[in-house]
Amino acid sequence: MPSHHTLLETETLASSKLADAKIDVAAMHAVSSIHRAANASRNHMTNTVLRPHELSWTGFVVLWSVWIYGEPETREVAESAGISKATLSGVVKTLSARGWLKRTQSSSDKRFAHLSLTPAGMTLMEELFPQFNSGEQQLVADLTPDELTVLTKALRKVVTTAEGLGADTSV
């Protein structure tokens, strides 16, 4: 028995299993494809770009959020990364031990802390992100510019719809 089923195999099996159910198959296939694309791209980026730097996907997303937002509060980083504050604590501990991240207690409210990149963390992101973007380019290389524009707009609509429905972005 194969350990991996193609998208077509999965959709065929699901359609067969649910043939008598009153469901919106197009919606099921669309959302399933979003999940499969996200997982496939995440796996590709982790295996080809992040692993050589001994970085997990979550570790990268935390570094990226801090790099982009400057010195955000930990709760903002957890929300941006789509992880719990408890998970963030472990990631911050690991990234701090590697010398890439610094946690500073808020001077105005001791319940809050801010994260910032160390000089080594800044150097890592400045060197790593072009490699990351190269991986992104590989993933969309088979799309025409028009297809890429349509895909981006459609996915952004899904995200804004989820946000409008009150989807909790932190796990």
From TrEMBL:
Residues annotated as domain HTH marR-type: 27-160
GO BP: response to stress
Pfam families registered for this protein in UniProt: MarR
GO MF annotation terms: DNA-binding transcription factor activity
Database matches in PANTHER family: MARR FAMILY REGULATORY PROTEIN, TRANSCRIPTIONAL REGULATOR, MARR FAMILY
The protein's name: Transcriptional regulator
